[in-house]
Amino acid sequence: MASYVESILSKNEKITYEGRISLWSLAPNIILGVLLLPAMGAGLIFLVLAWLKYISTELAITNKRVVAKFGFIRRRTVEINLAKIESIQVDQGILGRVFGYGSLIVAGAGTPQAPIPGISDPIAFRKAFMATQEEHLPALTA
Fold first, then answer.
1. Which residue of 24, 32, 86, 140 has the lowest C-beta tally within 10 Å?
2. Distance in angstroms (rounded) separating the CA atoms of residues 40 and 110
């Protein structure tokens, strides 16, 4: 079964970087799930929700756009062309800095800010975006 990102690639479009949601950003649900597990399995709900969020979130940079997909049953996507992105901001709190996760805020021309929360190593994602944009942007604007 192909991932969402692989299924939407257009002709000559290739994935240059794939990000993941951080397990640390899911820690509250995981901890609550483990603590409530003895209570007639109520914690299992929190563990399943954390697992579903982890496997159903896809983050990728292609040579043409940035793609983020959230959700298992209800799907929400953010897809912005590289040429339209004006900035990517990294938002990390203290725990995010310590455990290497944070949120990205993608701002584009004519596009409202699109937050991508809980991403693992957001600095690496931003670096990969900048490298991809520098490499492919001249070809996109020509």
1. 86
2. 50
- Nearest Cα to Cα of residue 54 among 24, 27, 23, 76: 23
Which fold, 13-141? PH-domain like (2.30.29)
Q: State both tokens at 89.
A: 């901001």
Confidence (pLDDT) at 138: 65
Tokens of 31: 């901890």
* Per-domain boundaries in the chain: 13-141
Name beta bridge partners: 76.
Answer: 70
pTM above 0.90, yes or no: no
pLDDT tens by residue, 26-53: 999 999 999 998 877 788 999 999 999 9
pLDDT tens digits, 69-96: 999 889 999 888 888 888 889 999 999 9
